[in-house]
Amino acid sequence: MKKPHVKGARLGSNWTVGMAMVSLLTLFPIAAGAETARWDIDPDHSSIEFRVAHMVVSKTSGRFRDYQGFVEMDADAKTLKSIEATIKTESIDTNHDKRDAHLRNADFLDVERFPTMTYTMKQYRKQGDTYTVIGDLTLRGVTKEITLNVTFNGVTKDPWGNTRAGFSADGTLNRKDFGMVWNKVLDSGGLVVGDEVQIRLDIECIKAKKPS
Predict the structure, then answer these.
(1) Is the four-CA dihedral 27, 32, 36, 37 of positive or negative sign?
(2) Tens-digit pLDDT profile for residues 54-77
(3) Is the pLDDT of residue 2 over 60?
(4) For residues 203 and 167, what is the distance between their CA atoms, to the nearest angstrom?
(5) For residue 120, what are the contacts with CB-CB under 8 A and spacing of at least 6?
(6) Domains in the chain and their CATH numbers?
(7) Do residues 92 and 116 lie in contact, with contact meaning Cβ atoms separated by under 8 Å?
């Protein structure tokens, strides 16, 4: 015996499917006519900086001066596809030659064996103009997940016809996770160098132009 057809049953099913699709679009926004483009990091207008505790009472800051990378994104939809960066470890600069030489040796970055470090985005979560970006940092031959809190600062045209975008980001890493375990104990019982390294990024990118 056939079951009676109930009007509205199909409507209810279609409504459920429709709401599920709306939920997915909210989680992963895709704009109509969206364009994903490559944006190359402009190192002349960017900075990769760090801070680490020194002898408990203060923090030492520094930066890397030689790096390259790119972001693939749809700037209108504010969605990301990929982020990749390569940093030359020898370019570390803490404004102190003797300290920089120590940071380049095997106690820390070991730049002769590991001339670069890399970061590659694996996934992200988006809320408005902010992102939680999870990626793999490879340093001294060790790969660990590092989370960056990223803010998209917008897009503008420069006087030379380039389209530029800006990002700010921060995060932390534990240097011991990457094999940098050197330290000395102070008479007071503290350590010369802290384990946690604070990361601060201010990145300006230029949209790659399509081949003519």
Answers:
(1) negative
(2) 887 889 999 999 999 999 999 999
(3) no
(4) 5
(5) 82, 83, 84, 135, 136
(6) 33-207 (2.40.128.110)
(7) no
